[in-house]
Design goal:
mainly beta
Length: 123
């Protein structure tokens, strides 16, 4: 048995709560020009950018007749071919809440869709 003397001291260093970068993580949803339209074109955009009050977006969509296909049921090439392209253009007014959106959806097996949506608030 080893006897411990009062000179045997164990130093415990507590981690400091100091950070060079002030990290913060929030789970808030940013409001976007692509949110809240009446018709179901609020599809996730793959690429989106803006220039002032003008917005551009590129995405993919799947026609209704291909909605039943799942990735595991068909080959990769068939699954990719079941998707089409979506190009979006939107703008907001600088002096009111007016906004509009123009979408073009294309798939090689279906007719192209053209949609113009306008939101004009009445006061």
């Amino acid at each position: 048995m080893v006897a411990k003397s009062t000179s045997d001291v164990i130093a415990v260093i507590a981690p400091q709560e100091i950070s060079v970068i002030d990290w913060s993580i929030t789970d808030r949803k940013e409001v976007s020009i692509w949110d809240g339209w009446k018709y179901g074109f609020d599809i996730p955009q793959i690429l989106t950018t803006s220039a002032g009050n003008t917005f551009y977006g590129f995405g993919v969509w799947q026609p209704e007749e291909y909605k039943n296909l799942s990735f595991g049921d068909v080959s990769t090439s068939e699954w990719l071919k079941s998707h089409g392209l979506n190009l979006s253009f939107g703008a907001t007014s600088t002096d009111s809440d007016t906004r509009y959106r123009f979408d073009v959806r294309w798939h090689e097996d279906t007719d192209a869709d053209f949609m113009l949506q306008m939101q004009i608030p009445f006061k």
